[in-house]
Amino acid sequence: MAPRRPRDIDAELRALQDKAKLLRTRQKAELGELLLATGAADSLDPDALAGLLLHGLEQAKGNPQAAESWRQRGEAFFRRERAGTHGSGGTKATPAAPRAARRDAEDAARPAAE
User: Fold this and answer.
1) CA–CA distance from 23 to each of 18, 30, 32 (Å)?
2) C-alpha to C-alpha distance for 49 and 86, rounded to whole angstroms
3) What pLDDT, on a 0 to 100 scale, did the predictor assign at position 112?
4) Are residues 78 and 96 in contact, defined by beta-carbon separation less than 8 angstroms?
5) Residues near 23 by Cβ (< 8 Å), separated by ≥ 6?
6) SS3 per residue for 57-94
7) CA distance to 9, 12, 54, 67, per residue, from 94 (Å)
8) Residue 95, number of CB atoms within 10 A of its CB
9) Per residue in 18-42, pLDDT tens?
10) pLDDT surpasses 60 at 104
11) How far is the C-alpha of 89 from the C-alpha of 15, rounded, in Å?
12) How does residue 111 score in pLDDT terms, banded at 50, 70 and 90?
């Protein structure tokens, strides 16, 4: 029986750091897509958007039912967006559609041993 190869922990750490950086980049892009899809980027300036998000975080901590209500409303928004793209023949992309497609592709590429 051959001896085990030592693990290259530095290479594994670099790979994880690269993956984390890629995920943060995707997250930023998706947030930008979300702002554009909802029209918030056109309606509110960055200070107002930041204040709105901070207020929402504070409210969600004190009232979990509010956060669930927001989640349901967001889910309905993306369902309408996806339904609108199929019927109109347009190529309008939503943040949820690319995210779901990437997640499916990543799941398919992930080894079963993880």
Assistant:
1) 9, 10, 14
2) 30
3) 45
4) yes
5) none
6) HHHHHHCHHHHHHHHHHHHHHHHHHHHHHHHHCCCCCC
7) 38, 33, 24, 21
8) 19
9) 999 999 999 999 999 999 999 999 9
10) no
11) 40
12) very low
pLDDT digits (tens, 9 = 90+) for 31-71: 999 999 999 999 999 999 999 999 999 999 999 999 999 99
Distance between CA atoms of residues 70 and 31, nearest Å: 16
Residues in contact with 33: Cβ distance below 8 Å, sequence separation at least 6, in sequence order = 93, 94, 95, 98
Q: How many residues does the chain have?
A: 114
